[in-house]
Write a structure and sequence with these properties.
elongated; 5 helices; 4-stranded mixed β-sheet; Alpha-Beta Plaits; single chain; alpha+beta; 4-stranded antiparallel β-sheet
Length: 164
């Protein structure tokens, strides 16, 4: 099996061709990653740069199984799916003012489980221990995500109003 290191994350592939295809596409989609590695090396942080550098290593199955849960199930037999995912997040202070807002659209791999989705849109509101309330939406349809983001923001403001 072939383990691809992508920004310190490890992903196993059944063939070298799959591993190389993913690594090549990753480089194309993350052009700033090479600069980050160069900057780390310039600062003398070679061990950190090495841990973040994209590379492919051939591993025995037993090494993979010992390192990560899931064993053979965690080895990609086919090219993982990739979709353009739109995301939006607003973090509200307890008084309802926006403390932070973020929006992005980027290709996301199926193995990026925190960001990947096949849904047109989904949203949620979460209260954080630091007092912030987050309104979050993501999905593959920009229009649907915008609508979901509005709903999430409305709900987050309702949560904030209960805190006052």
């Amino acid at each position: 099996m072939y383990v691809t290191f992508l920004q310190a994350e490890k992903h196993a592939f059944a063939t070298r061709e799959l591993a190389e295809a993913v690594a090549e596409q990753w480089h194309t989609e993350h052009p700033d990653h090479k600069k980050e590695i160069e900057d780390l090396r310039a600062e003398g942080l070679h061990h950190v740069a090495d841990s973040k550098e994209t590379r492919i290593e051939e591993w025995p199955q037993s090494k993979w199984e010992a390192l990560l849960p899931g064993g053979h199930k965690a080895v990609w037999q086919d090219l993982p799916d990739r979709r353009l995912v739109h995301q939006a997040l607003a973090a509200y202070n307890p008084d309802g003012t926006v403390g932070h807002e973020f929006q992005s659209s980027r290709p996301v791999w199926e193995f990026e489980t925190d960001s990947y989705t096949t849904k047109d849109a989904e949203w949620r509101v979460e209260e954080r221990p630091n007092g912030l309330t987050e309104a979050w939406a993501r999905g593959t349809s920009k229009d649907a995500v915008n609508e979901a983001y509005l709903r999430a923001r409305e709900e987050a403001l309702r949560v904030c109003s209960r805190k006052r």
